[in-house]
Structures are given as structure tokens and as C-alpha cells.
């Protein structure tokens, strides 16, 4: 078991490093010159500076060094929690991130929890319902939820609940009330996807012979559904759980922009627009870290939920499926 | 009467129309009686069983008649009434023990549910496990299904059925999923239990031999109707219906079809010499160690004849087949196909040889791509080896379908439109596409009903005679081996324990293990009666 955990952690770190390196390569190999961008941001014409001034500035931002030296500098910096200085705002990137990460984390975690509850409940009811029209309706609902674009959902919620009913504020991140609509916006998509996977999984599980065994014992329908079907149906859905939680993080870009919330998502959107390379790099790295962490947790939870996956006992390498020799 | 069914009609609702599955059925089961319903897939035998235990699928409807179980009318009864019957009046032993238990729950907990429902104490779990013949009940109760062998899982399912203290146990196809010897021991045990405790037993089976060996009364069903009923002696001795006679004829006789005892064997097409296979098993506590799947196995397939590999699951027969096909590499030893050594060949150098040896699988439902038409499936090997063009391939497919006795109109069909036997014919046609010399048959009939089994075995024998094919035939069923094979190797724990002409091994088995296998074949009463 220890070996399994250590292996997974090493793998997670490797993925994180690869995400950082890839982002670095893409951002720094872009044709635009970061110096030029920065000067443009400050409203200074590059031609108005003397070569000496330019060189001094490049030295200050480390842009005179080779690409490898810059990469190394950034990588060691990140390991110490130092993401460099924002080109557009002239403040340490780590300060920008720490000031905003709390809001985004609250948003993501709340959205993930709501999706989990809403998605599971919907799937449970859709497969438990006996009245056929209700069953069909509940099975189709997730497809509808998954097809609305997030910005549309967000605008609809603002129009209805803020402007017409006045229940929730349309913008800002003051208090719990301002959190409701952004969280719902994200969850409409993620809970729908989760419900779709779960419903399919439930249907497959319910046709398994062991369900017939359970019913033949004389267990009630609800006992069979809850005690025998639910856990087995949830296993395949675990895999996409990591992806969905990742999705709540990326969704924050749209949602924070539409609801004007201060957060990492909005920071990402702004820094991409102003081509603030160090900030973009930091945001991507932080998002990747969250993504990797969630998937690591899912991986570690798996053996606890499925006794067939065991990492303590020896395993015979499973024989590959025999394919018809041609 | 525990079960009293009168004029029962059951149908399935499809596209707003009721398709009848059972029609006008009369059936009774008396206390402590063992009744067997015999019939092919689609005969309505499983529908009948489901109606008795109140487990008809959501689209199942009882449209007429009555089914009284332990004094309670189940036709038209609500879920609450039916649920009181399940477990406490009628217990069920499902068909396939490998998938009949919830994989994420300890087996003890699964039995405890049934004990709790009738208000028993948790300790009774161990009693029922012991009753079902599970050794070490305290240990086993804490294990998960995947940690138990198929035989033990079957016993756990019996324990679950017993835990409700039912008056009737329904055993659905109790012989189809496990090895014959294991199954025989379990059925003997179950037979003893129901006799001791006075429980009635309803056996649902496609195999008349099983029914004849174990039942007090046999009910033969065809197309949803009961066509014949009586005690085994009457059914076997004076069957009234042609269908019953066909079922009796399909029971393997253990009379070998071929006797090659005094003949000089023809040249071998496939020779395995001292083949061993060790699988690496990684064990975190004890380090890497080996598991010997095969230990110096030598097998010869004579040209134009059939050699059978027989043994229980885990004996190494499938590994031998995979090594012979070059899908698995031997740890040591030699495999010669038509004179060419295949051990140590790379995938690419093995590929030309693959045309000479083809494979037919056990499960005809899983071996055909559901999205391929029959023509696509059959011509795929030709496409893969770039043989011919579109037109000649289609022509060849037509010819192959003719050889396996299917009409050419099936070329455009999808596997889902075909029955199990028809699919197996398609799989055989596909194996024949490249005109191989040798066909490896991996349990080719064990997923099929007896009557279909008989037809497929006949087809294989006919093809062998017409095309001069050689077969390497893997089976757990000695009865089938007698129908098809010339020579046989009996395998156990990765070794060949006995080898020789089928006629010799059957009449004069040398090893105790072979004798046990022969004894386990159902159909004693049939053999005696005919």
C-alpha cells in the first residue's frame, strides 16, 4: 500500500512538472516579445528608450539570459513559492495569487459538493422511479443541463434572480449570498455530466445477476437500490469525478468574469488579455496542482471503495483478451 | 402443494404488444419433491421460474391463469405480497456464481441480509455457510466474492438461499457455469440438503441428462408450452414427443465416435514438446516468485484428426492453447506448427504462420463485433492478409456461409439478429476463411443448448471430413470430447496426467483423476435407460 501511495505521489509530481514545463515552453516560445508587451502596457514606445535603458530593463526581468537559464530560474523560484513579478502590475505574482485563491477555492469546492449531491440524487431518482414518464423525464434532464453554455446560464440567473426577484446580488464576492449563483452556474454543467454517467452506470448495475440475487433474498426495492446498486454504480463514475472537479476550477474563468468576482479565474482572463506571461504561468501551474491533487485523492480512494483493487497482495499479470488470430 | 400453477400465460410487453413467453402452463411442485423443467433457450422455463419467485422483468406480464405459491396467489399480486414470498418461501440459486454475488460486499454480510429478514441472529451466517459445505465459515464470511473460487461462490449462493429457510429452492441452470466435478459435488450436496430438510427443489436446465439424474419428475417445455411430463424412467423409456426424443438423443453417450486404438497415427500438424510456462507473480512481502501454469506439457495433434485437451478451470488447457497459437510465449520447450518452430518468433515473423492456425472461441456472443455485418466479420481475415478484392472476398464469404450451413442472405445481418448457434457457425466460417490446416477450438459448444451443441459438433465433424482439417479442442466436458476427438490429453494442475486415444482413455482410464471426470458427467440414468 505504501508503495502504491508513493508511486502515485511521484506520478502526481511528474505531471505537475510536465504541466509547468509545457506551459513555460508555449508561453516563452510565442513570437511576441515580452519586453515590448510590457512597455506597451506602460504606454511607452520602445523606440523612445535608449539601447542601454532597454538592456537594463531586460536584465531586471531576467530576459537577457538564455531560455534555459530563464526556465531554471522560474522552476527553482516556483519551488520556493516565488512566481516572479507581474509584467503589467509590477507586484509579485504570488501576492496576486494568494489574494485571490481563497475566493476561487470556495467557489470550486462548493460547486464540486453541490454537483456531487445534485448529480447523485438525480441519478438515484431517475433509476429508482417506477412511473415510466417520470423516469424518462429524469433521465433526459441531465442532457439538457449539459447542453447550456455556462455564460448563458449565468446571464439567465442574473436576469431572473437578481434583476427580477432581487434575491441574490448580481456581482461581487461579499458574503454567502453572492456565492449562490456562481456555484449554481458551475454545477448545472458538472452535476449534469455526473448524473449522465451515473444513470448509465446504474442501469448497467441493475441488470447484473447479483441484483437478482439480492431481490430474491426478499430485500425491498429501496434496500437493493441503496445497499447493492449504489456503490457498484458509483465506481465507474469515480473516474470522471477528478475531471469534473478540474472542470469547476476552469469554469471559474467564465463565472468569475460574468459575476465580476475576484479570483484566480478572473486573474487568468485578465493576464491572458494583457499577455502577462509570469501570471499566466503561475495560474496554469496552480490550476494543474489542484487538478493533480484531486485526481490523486480519487486514486487513493479507489481501493477503499472497490475491494477488488488491492495493492497489498500479489497480482498475476492479467492475461490480455484473446483476439482472433488473423 | 408448494407451487400450483394453472393455465398460466406470461408475456413480455414489447412495442405495446404482449409477446407470449409461457402459454397455458400447468405445473405443481409438492413438498420435498424435486422437479426439473427442461427446455432450450426461449422455451419459457426461466420465465416460469421468475414468475414463481415474483421476479419477472418490468415488462413481464401475467396475462391469464393463476400461480399459487404456498397458498398465496402471485398473479396480479403487488410487490409487497411478492416480497414476502421471496427468500422466506422461495429461494433462488442463480445461474452463474461468478456474477451472482455483489463484488463490493463481504459474503458474510450478503448472507446476513437474508438471515436478518427472517429475524435470525447474525451467528446463523456461519451455520448456513457450514451447511452449504463451505470450510472455515468464520474466515470465508469476512472475504469478498473475488477472493473465492467459483465452487465456493456457488456454495455461498446456496447458503444465501438456505438462510431464508425457504420451502422451495429454484436452481437456475446449476450445471452451466462450473467444472463438471465441482458441479457434481455441489449438486450432490444440495440434493442431500433438500432431502434432509424437506425442501422442494425446482431445477431449471437445458440438459436432460442433469434433469434425469436428479429429479423425481421432469417437465419438458418447448415454445412456452409444457409438452411432456413424467418421472425420469417414463420420460426416458417411453417418450411421447419427437422433441423429447431429440433431447434424449443429444445426451452424450460416452461412446467415443472415433476409435484410433489400432491405427498408426498420421503425421502431426502441431507438436508441443516439454512446454513449460511460468507466470511472474509479484508479491510485496515475499518478493517476486513464479507460478507454474504449465509443467513440461507435450501434446501432439495428428493431421486431419482432433486432439482434445480436457481438464478443469485453472488446469492450464487454455494457456496451452494460447501458446500453441503464439499468443503467449512458452518459458521453455518447443512448439512446432507444420514443421516450423514458433517459440521465439517475433510477432511479424509469426504472422505468416497465423494463416495456418485459426481460433474459434467459447462465447459466440462476445466474439463477433456487434457493429460488423456477418460479411465483414467473415472477410476480415482476408482483408487483413490482403487476399483477393472486394468481389472475390464476398464470393468467398458466400461459399463459407454455405459450408457452415447458413443461407447467403445472412451476409448483411448483424450478430444481434442471430441465435447463439448461428453466431458460432459464423465464427467457424471466419476461422475457415484463410483455409487453415489447424483450427483451435476453445470450448466451442459450452455456451450453447444441448440440441445446438449437437448440431455444431456434427458441423465440425463434417467440416473435418470434407476439408481434412485438424482440430485442437479444449473442453472441460468429457462427454463432448467423446463426440469429436480422436485422441485426448487429460490435464490437471499444469500437467498432462493421461494421454491416448479417446476410446482407450474412456474404456480404461489409468488415472484416478480421469475416472473422477468420467463419473462427473451427468446422464447415468439416460445411459442406463437407453
From TrEMBL, chain A:
A GO BP entry: transmembrane transport
Family statement: Belongs to the binding-protein-dependent transport system permease family.
UniProt main location, coarse: membrane
Superkingdom of the source species: Bacteria
Record keywords, A-Z: Cell membrane, Membrane, Transmembrane, Transmembrane helix, Transport
Alphabetical list of CDD domains matching this protein: TM_PBP2
Cellular component, GO, one term: plasma membrane
This protein's name: Peptide ABC transporter permease
SUPFAM superfamilies: MetI-like (SSF161098)
Membrane topology: Multi-pass membrane protein
Taxonomic source organism: Paractinoplanes toevensis
Cell compartments where the protein resides: Cell membrane
InterPro entries to which the protein is assigned, alphabetical: BPD_transp_1_N, MetI-like, MetI-like_sf
Membrane-crossing segments per the record: 12-30, 105-129, 141-167, 179-199, 235-259, 279-305
Domain ABC transmembrane type-1 residues, every copy: 101-302
UniProtKB/TrEMBL annotation, chain B:
Gene Ontology molecular function, alphabetical: ATP binding; ATP hydrolysis activity
Any one GO biological process: peptide transport
InterPro entries: AAA+_ATPase (IPR003593), ABC_transp_ATP-bind (IPR050319), ABC_transporter-like_ATP-bd (IPR003439), ABC_transporter-like_CS (IPR017871), Oligopep_ABC_C (IPR013563), P-loop_NTPase (IPR027417)
Domain ABC transporter: 5-248, 270-518
Signal peptide start-end: none
Pfam families xrefs: ABC_tran (PF00005), oligo_HPY (PF08352)
Keywords, ordered alphabetically: ATP-binding, Nucleotide-binding, Transport
Similarity field: Belongs to the ABC transporter superfamily.
PANTHER family: D,D-DIPEPTIDE TRANSPORT ATP-BINDING PROTEIN DDPF-RELATED, TRANSPORT ATP-BINDING PROTEIN
Full protein name: ABC transporter ATP-binding protein
Organism: Paractinoplanes toevensis
